[in-house]
Specification:
The complex is a heterotetramer, with two copies of chain A (about 280 residues) and two copies of chain B (about 300 residues). By secondary structure, chain A is an alpha/beta fold. Chain A has helices spanning about 30-35, 95-100, 135-145, 165-175, 190-200, 215-230, and strands spanning about 5-15, 20-25, 40, 70-75, 75-80, 85-90, 105-115, 125-130, 150-160, 175-180, 190, 210-215, 235, 250-255, 265, 275. Chain A folds into two domains: about 5-115, Translation factors (Elongation Factor Tu (Ef-tu), domain 3), CATH 2.40.30.10; about 125-235, Rossmann fold (3-Layer(aba) Sandwich), CATH 3.40.50. Chain A has a seven-stranded antiparallel β-sheet. The longest helix of chain A has 14 residues, at about 215-230. Chain B is of the alpha/beta class and about 300 residues long. In chain B, helix 5 packs parallel to helix 6 (about 175-185) and helix 8 (about 250-260) packs across helix 10 (about 275-290). In chain B, strand 1 and strand 2 form a beta hairpin. Chain B has an eight-stranded parallel barrel, surrounded by six helices. In chain B, strands 5-6-14-11 form a four-stranded antiparallel β-sheet, with no helix packed on it. In chain B, strands 1-2 form a two-stranded antiparallel ribbon. Chain B has a single domain (about 10-55, about 75-200, about 220-300), classed as TIM Barrel. The model of chain B has no long low-confidence stretch (mean pLDDT about 95). Classes of the chains: A alpha/beta (about 280), B alpha/beta (about 300). Chains in contact: A-B, A-D, B-C, C-D. The interface between B and C is large, with 52 and 52 residues. The structure holds flavin-adenine dinucleotide (2 copies), flavin mononucleotide (FMN) (2 copies) and FE2/S2 (inorganic) cluster (2 copies). One flavin-adenine dinucleotide (FAD) binds near residues 88, 93, 133, 240 and 241 of chain A.
Chain lengths: ~280, ~300, ~300, ~280
């Protein structure tokens, strides 16, 4: 029997850029278990202090959840020694705003690690191509890839230099980085997909494989570039979720069935969020 | 805290070890849950709605969060009866809990075929879903009027000796009447409520959040409506009532039992707290103990209206 | 943040300075609110339900909190038409905002008398409450079927030239049909939703929380149902729709306008945040500005369903 | 135009007895304005820190109130110099439990002071008779009575000595106190109403007037004793509330109309919570 619900303790919290909040959470089991590309369903309802309730929100108060649903957030990083995991997220709505108000010492309930993450290739260079908040899951991916002895390259795209984040973290885990900005001012002016194409055309130690996460148009472009070069590409998709555990079927993603090539719905939360980019039925 | 509480209940001829049933559509076919929960601790498990043919379901987004609840528009995505019978039902039957199969169709003939074939299986009861708000044909169209319910139950009743539960929609003028219609045609129980038809709007894109435009509202938000309807149905019919809608805790479950439910179903709660599917039963036992009730079945219908 | 937004809307022939109306029963007769809010900033104020005779209302408790909402069973407590006309209406008419008088009765004759006498006053519109779930006679009994709505509106329509709004109940199988019934008999607008009939139970005392057993559910919990019904009514009729149910913010109000409401009412929000009665209008203006909408009336019915 | 909604800052919080929580809140305007017997409608939904929102909960998050309604809690005390007010309450349900989790520095939104409080007599001795949590509003009453030069006597009843609270506070503001406990062990074994009768029978400097708050049977007994002795008595009633401001009519209390003597409903929140005890239609 697997344990799904975990109660971690916030070690630190704060903003790393405007509207980009980071939570470091002590949760040793999750830190030990997590694979890159996996996510957690975070409970945004403040938990009472541990003196009130051992297991989480008091049963009596369970109907008072607000916001009601948990939020899917990728594991951005994990420190297996310290037993911590890191979530970074844009504070776009009620739930993420509530999460950003957590402070060191607060408790956080989450389900996870969940989902089918990135597969690490056996050898060669892993290129991670991320756009906007899509860069977050790629940090742990590159960290684990490097630990496995792979070459690591990060191509991250941001709206503007002021809205660029985790640059140093990515430098730490990558042999090479290329930071792109729509408005210029970083390594590359343009989108992450263009930066990636540029990197590719300049040659990388092979075999190359790609992992991408970000806006759909960007991922589609990356997938197309990979397909034309015969490079394996994994893409992390996003869909609205309720359970995150595969039971409610609300997180349908359109992918082509391996056998028939016909489009069918798979559950983003359990069959994904990471799919073979060639399988994805890009809209 | 000492005396054990007898949690067993009966829904007609069917005995359940406890009154907490995992609701249709919020438990898949049990496989994912079996990984993380001991399903044998459930009173029963009710399958995701099964149709004759496989269904892909609706386009995403299929979910919208609302205040104290959620809208879903899954649209009965399921592998179809054949694969259900082959792969899913055998798995469910081996879990040490009663199995209720929830079925849905476009036509009376669909329901007939489903009941005929399920009659030959080991399932413990069939729940006729006459209340799914998320598909264009059938389903809620049958369930929203007494005449529709009557016709449908009459069509399938002769085809199975399994206990037949009729799942009623709250999107109707009088649930007492639809419940009476089900009873009149020989249903063994009515279960209610399914989801309330609702809509969520993204004011910035000027679009409904759900690709299906509307969806079914579930969760604590609907509990007051569900309790009222369960109580109405309980007063209207002599057959057992299975109650649900927004149950998050054991005390919530007790409220439904008091209103006349012989058993309850837990749906949405399990999506946000996977342990809810069993913790509701534990909390119900605690509640019974605290309030000096030794047989949970004594709560059924014990509400004293003013 | 510069260009002013034109907040004015029309509900048929009635012009409102902004689309936010204080809902019936949650604003008394304006007196208490006038102390703490500038009522002239409201689009309109809708009176507590007025009946011919004074009514004491139901026994307490009359309120139960629910998840993201509340149940009330006030039972139309009011001083009766005579005192309303003498004391309350003059006060309301002097507040610099449009005045809608919400009326309720046991019989068609009650409604006729109410409309006849209000026709002679300075009120801006009459809202026929055919949807109060908390009284034994009349009211929701008329509103829950198209035939009931038709009979009632037909009875009163000839007696007043005031704009006649028919307030519909959500406790019905099809709000499109009751809305059409109102339109067919000459109503100037339909307003919806009134509260959903619900119940709260105290599991420890085994009693309904409300002395009236059932009550009307309002607040954010019902917003998804309300939005869906407003959209249904908007698609079903040509007369204006006044929308309400769970509006807490300007963006909520925008959602109702998009679904087809020409104006909105704010009820329960004002009970927990007295400023909500006006802040919703302010936030709506902010929302319009942010989204580049210069005339709020352009939002009405601008939803683009999938 | 009166201001109803106020945002105070919690100065201190804690439990004074099992399930009895105390909040001291900096809210100078309310402290200056409050009259004994008045109450506030406390918002139990945690407010974001002031950096997030000036006026209270973010408008965008307003639909996420949990619990939904405010809770009526009496002003137990006020320090007009320090600009603080004190609320003490039993943590009986979701809302009061949430309130008890507030910590120094947190912000609290409340409506108030609300309601028609106790009238202070011009002269003589004021006897406050309270039972259980009904003692709370009587502390400020006695403080103000003493400041006005009245004689002050407190008769407070508790379930047991272990569940007795604010004894020293009441001693501070009273010429004489009599603490009763159902189980004995304090000044008097029995109910507050009996302790009051006992006090009366032993004689008090007149004219005597009485203020009472607590369980209905106790208040009815006190009212009956007063009626038979011709002593004016004010009673503070309790009813479930939504708005607290007189607009929703859910808080009906049965009282006899002054003119006709016929029972009618008055609003506990605005016409009460304090009524002339002889007017109350005791059940
Ligand atoms: C597998 C996965 C991993 C993710 N990882 C990250 C991450 O590491 N960092 C990050 O900033 N964001 C991530 N997201 C997006 C994140 O889940 C949403 O931004 C977040 O749910 C929005 O919640 P809210 O309360 O701010 O917004 P609200 O608008 O209040 O949300 C309302 C509802 O819509 C859902 N929702 C809204 N936007 C999205 C979205 N873009 N994707 C999925 N559901 C949404 C919410 O979950 C909630 O149910 C991820 C999404 C998925 C599916
Ligand atoms: C004028 C007035 C002054 C009060 N002053 C105090 C005080 O100083 N200290 C104190 O401990 N208590 C006081 N109470 C009682 C207090 O309001 C309730 O104990 C509290 O509302 C319960 O809320 P909850 O969240 O703990 O319970 P829940 O059970 O979660 O409450 C559910 C709903 O019922 C209402 N409710 C439940 N019990 C009561 C009750 N006894 N009275 C009124 N509403 C109730 C709640 O307000 C809420 O709306 C006062 C009540 C009134 C009317
Ligand atoms: C995601 C989801 C899928 C559902 N699918 C079905 C279904 O297939 N058949 C059915 O009868 N009810 C279905 N329901 C309704 C539930 O079984 C239940 O009646 C309803 O959600 C109310 O209970 P709850 O508030 O505990 O969830 C579904 C509900 C949800 C949330
Ligand atoms: C306490 C209370 C009293 C109400 N009284 C009336 C009434 O007298 N007449 C009426 O038509 N509606 C009445 N309503 C219904 C509201 O006007 C409104 O339709 C409903 O509450 C939904 O809107 P809301 O969620 O914004 O409150 C009342 C609602 C509440 C909460
Ligand atoms: S979110 Fe429930 S199945 Fe994926
Ligand atoms: S609580 Fe609303 S009138 Fe008293």
């Amino acid at each position: 029997m697997r344990t799904l619900e975990r109660i971690g303790t916030v070690v630190s919290s704060g903003f790393i850029a405007p509207e980009q909040a980071r939570l470091v959470v002590h949760a040793p089991d999750a830190a030990a278990e997590v694979r890159p590309g996996q996510f957690a369903m975070l409970d945004c309802t403040p938990l009472p202090a541990s003196s009130d309730a051992a297991g989480g929100i008091l049963p009596k108060d369970a109907a008072q959840r607000a916001p009601f649903l948990r939020r899917p957030i990728s594991f951005c990083d994990a420190d297996r020694v310290a037993g911590t995991v890191t979530f970074v997220f844009r504070t776009s709505g009620t739930g993420t705003r509530a999460l950003s108000r957590l402070r060191a010492g607060d408790r956080l309930s989450f389900l996870g690690p969940l989902g089918h993450g990135f597969a690490l290739p056996e050898t060669g260079t892993l290129v991670a191509v991320g756009g906007g908040i899509g860069v977050y899951p790629l940090l742990l991916l590159l960290r684990d890839a490097r630990a496995k002895g792979l070459g690591t390259v990060a191509a991250c795209g941001y709206r503007s230099p002021a809205l660029a984040f985790l640059l140093d973290d990515f430098r730490d885990v990558s042999d090479a980085t290329c930071f792109a900005s729509d408005t210029g001012g970083l390594d590359f002016a343009g989108h992450a997909a263009d930066a990636f194409a540029d990197l590719l055309s300049r040659g990388l130690p092979g075999p190359v494989s790609v992992a991408t996460c970000g806006p759909a148009p960007m991922m589609r472009a990356v997938a197309a570039r990979c397909a034309s070069s015969g490079i394996p590409c994994q893409a992390s998709l996003e869909e609205r979720m309720a359970c995150g555990t595969g039971i409610c079927l609300v997180c349908a993603c359109k992918v082509k069935a391996a056998a028939s090539g016909e489009a069918e719905y798979k559950r983003c939360c359990t069959e994904g969020p990471v799919f073979d980019a060639q399988e994805v039925a890009w809209e | 805290m000492s005396a054990p509480v007898d949690l067993s209940v009966r829904v007609g001829t069917l005995s359940l070890k406890n009154p907490v049933i995992a609701a249709s559509g919020t438990t898949g076919f049990g496989r994912e849950m079996a990984d993380v929960l001991d399903l044998s601790r459930l009173g029963a498990i009710c399958s995701k709605g099964v149709t004759l043919e496989p269904r892909r379901g609706n386009l995403p987004p299929r979910v919208a969060e609302t205040a104290s609840g959620m809208l879903n528009a899954v649209g009965l995505q399921n592998p179809g009866l054949d694969r259900f019978l082959e792969e899913d039902l055998p798995f469910l039957l081996g879990r040490g809990t009663a199995v209720v199969v929830n079925v849905a169709g476009n036509t009376a003939e669909d329901y007939q075929e489903l009941c005929r074939r399920l009659d030959a299986t080991g399932c413990d009861a069939i729940e006729l879903n006459l209340s799914c708000p998320n598909v264009k044909e059938g389903c809620m169209a049958f369930g929203s009027t007494p005449a529709g319910v009557r016709a449908l139950v009459r069509a399938v009743r002769p085809l199975t000796r399994k206990p037949l539960w009729v799942k009623l929609t709250p999107n109707t003028g009088s649930v007492a009447e639809t419940a009476r219609a089900a009873e009149a045609e020989g249903a063994d129980a009515v279960s209610l409520v399914n989801t309330l038809l609702g809509m969520a709007v993204d004011a910035r894109t000027r679009r409904p959040v759900l690709r299906n435009n509307t969806g079914g509202l579930s969760g604590p938000a609907i509990k007051p409506v569900a309790l009222r309807m369960v109580h109405e149905a309980f007063q209207a019919v002599g057959i057992p009532v299975v109650g649900m809608g927004g149950i998050m805790t054991g005390e919530d479950a007790a409220e439904f039992l008091l209103c006349g439910a012989s058993a309850v179903q837990v749906g949405t709660a399990g999506l946000v707290r996977p342990s809810a599917f069993v913790s509701v039963a534990d909390e119900l036992a605690d509640f019974a103990r605290e309030t000096g009730c030794s047989r949970i079945a004594d709560l059924v219908g014990a509400l004293r209206p003013w």
